[in-house]
Amino acid sequence: MQGAITIEGVDKRYISRGRETVALDSVSLNIQPGELVSFVGPSGCGKSTLMNMIAGIVPMTNGRIIHNGKKVSGINRDVGYMTQADSVLPWRTVEKNVALPLEYRGVRTQERKQRVDEMLKLVELEGFNKSFPRELSGGMRKRVALAQMLAYSPNTLLLDEPFGALDAQLKMVMQQQLLNIWREQKKTIVLVTHDLSEAIAVSNRVVVLSGRPGRIKHIENIDIPHPRDVFKVRFLPEFERAYDSLWEQLSSEITKGESL
Ligand SMILES: Nc1ncnc2c1ncn2[C@@H]1O[C@H](COP(=O)(O)OP(=O)(O)O)[C@@H](O)[C@H]1O
Ligand SMILES: [Mg+2]
Which CATH architecture has domain 5-78+156-258? Predict the structure, then answer.
């Protein structure tokens, strides 16, 4: 059960200033332990809402989510969550940023230091312990956020458009690094991305959500064996087939939204 996520008939309605927004409508999905699943869908279809519900930050209107064999109610401390916003604190050094979740959990100084060094090595940021975020590139800051999230060893990672702001080359480097971490550490990963190539390159399955209210419209299995080289997979016929199929599903949802 460790790492498994079961989403059962989840609806989300927001009421704000007297207006109701139906963000998600009967979303159900089983995510296996150690699986890497991506969600794609038009902007506003409830992708971040779904992540917030798995993380237990936002309550659902109907349905339930089971993670690690337990019903999510209240903050889910078994997930590492990288939100769309940059979670790195500008006034703390790299090592102090990575150590933050360990401080919250009362991990002792010596153990904390050792763990921080291990994590910085894992994301290839050895030697940057004392740097401040402003001294780092965008990609390096994302790696600090990754290290911070991995520091307390959650078996499940939620990544909401983690590499969206990076340039194309750097994105591929980060995708490869993510895949390496996923393979070595056997994490369950849920990724939200607007980049179809990214979704196909890294995932076992890609889920297409419809325009708001978000419903599961299509699930594409990506049967490309691992380990994968995120650059080379783009030239495989399986990649092209998956891209065509996903683009057909997604593009019709995007144009539907436009005509409203
Ligand atoms: N706290 C909130 N209150 C009211 N409406 C919200 C709130 N959060 C999100 N929404 C609305 O719910 C819908 C889905 O939002 P979101 O989950 O952020 O979509 P996505 O991440 O797919 O772009 C949008 O219409 C958004 O405006
Ligand atoms: Mg979002």
Answer: 3-Layer(aba) Sandwich (3.40)
